[in-house]
Amino acid sequence: MTTWEALAVLAAGLGAGTINTIVGSGTLITFPVLLAVGLPPVTANVSNTLGLVPGSLSGAFGYRRELTGQRPRILLFGTAALLGGAAGAVLLIALPSRAFDTIVPVLVGIALVLVVAQPRLAAALRARRARTGTAPRRHGGPVLFTGLLLASVYGGYFGAAQGVLYLSMAGLVLDESLQRLNALKNVLTLLVNGVAAVLFLFVAHFDWTAVALLATGSALGGRIGATLGRRLPPTALRTVIVLVGVVAIVQLVR
Fold this sequence. Notes:
- It is a multi-pass membrane protein.
- It is found in: Cell membrane.
- By secondary structure, the chain is mostly helical.
- It is 82% helix and 0% strand.
């Protein structure tokens, strides 16, 4: 890897760490750069997962204030993240990517619709509960758990736009601010990337130079993303999510 290529990978890690903390989809920055510097696709994917773990940790730490009171939720959904992330990592090693390549743009598109419609849908759900006298399930029930589990499988496999999937599902059924949901998303992403990275260390090929450069850049980017993301009002944050999601769909279907 030349000096310019190393700087490009480092800059990609910085950008990915920043955007991952705010919304997700940083892989859409790093993965093409890793391919451009000559890494084979699977090696690039594995190196990318390993290199972005420090960024996920940095971003989750930056959002620690918004995690207050969410420990039971983290323990519950963290189980889904760990199981799904491990399953996705195994699928990456064992299976071709055609099935995921086909379904993921559709999933991201649906997630974006939910993100845009989330305020109205949540208000409609609250009104319906008021009419029927029912209380919302504290942690969203089995449907949300299953949805987050499946999103985590995808995250362990590739991960681009997994944050959009998390935010759209959690925002629909949980009565929380978007910033607190974003903090939860950062923890789940950390767990998915972390468990996948542990498996990859033992069974997959990766490039240590690329991993080190991505790790350095993403760790700094995670802190930047936490600072910027926490200052965005809900409407602005939702706009960023939609814009990033649209870019993700365009990249995934090319």
